[in-house]
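User: I want to check something. If I give you two sequences, will you return the structure for each one separately, not as a complex?

Assistant: Yes, each is folded on its own. Here is the first sequence with its structure:
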Amino acid sequence: MQITRASDYAVRVMIHLAGLPPGSRVRRSELSRATDVSGHFLSKVLQQLVRSRLLRSQRGSGGGFVLVGPASSVSLLDVVEAIEGPVRLNQCIEEGPSCERKSWCPAHQVWAEAQAAVVNVLGAASMASLALQAKSDSAALSRRHEKPIWISGVPKQSRGKRARRTHGR
């Protein structure tokens, strides 16, 4: 499972807007520069954020994009789901008769716990807290991508194979 570029870009936009004074309207061209996202692709992302009512757009000379509500009330989960739809690690997690095996499958409980963990972590990260972190850690820009972050619990052998495989791309 991997978050799409569209979700990554949406998160960039939302963090940028959350770091501005409340009610700040920003043009698409400025958002494109601030987030390192091409204007054409960014337009599609912004449309989805507007449709999901996370942003409001206004045309004209005073136009641009603005957060609909306080950044503290928008989570990383809200942004990802605005772009991707509901986060689901496996179809058996869905309510109702989504899988015939879920009542006895030994993996079902693991999927359910992993689903809950992802939702809890993404839901706990507000755009306001991420924007504050971005502002307070000005050194982060110079250290960006300095070294990879490994997920605990992934065997070292798997991590090494994955790293070697992706370096050639």
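And separately, the second sequence with its own structure:
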Amino acid sequence: MSEAEADLPRDHPRGLHIAGELTIPLAEVTVRTSRSSGPGGQHANVTASRVEASFDVLASSTLSEEQRERVLARVGPRVVAVAQDERSQARNRELALSRLSERLAAALAVPKRRRATRPTAASRERRLADKRRATERKRGRRPPEDS
């Protein structure tokens, strides 16, 4: 990516920047508008300001096979982001595209491998002390023994 491209907004016409070198062309993102719900008075009744951006994972030619499998496993075959926060359709479009980008980035993130560790001596002692307290509490609830 050149320095000139780095200064472009995330949803520039060249594509939707996800992470690292991955940029999805906007041609692969479907953007639909509809009337927004909620307050807004007469303005809400005539303006299609709600924006829904969706990305078809299976139809994408940009994702590698490994990336496609990861996204399918985590979020399914279609990633959708909706924005109806603002009165402006243009601003809601920006919000929807950035939310879509965030969801895809989260789905593509490779989780760190957990390093196995042993419980500390103090945590083992706390666990056993809690068990002893629970035993005593339950013993106190028993009816008295008749001798």
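Because they were folded independently, the notes below concern the second chain alone. The CA atoms of residues 74 and 107 lie 6 Å apart. The chain has one domain: 3-108.
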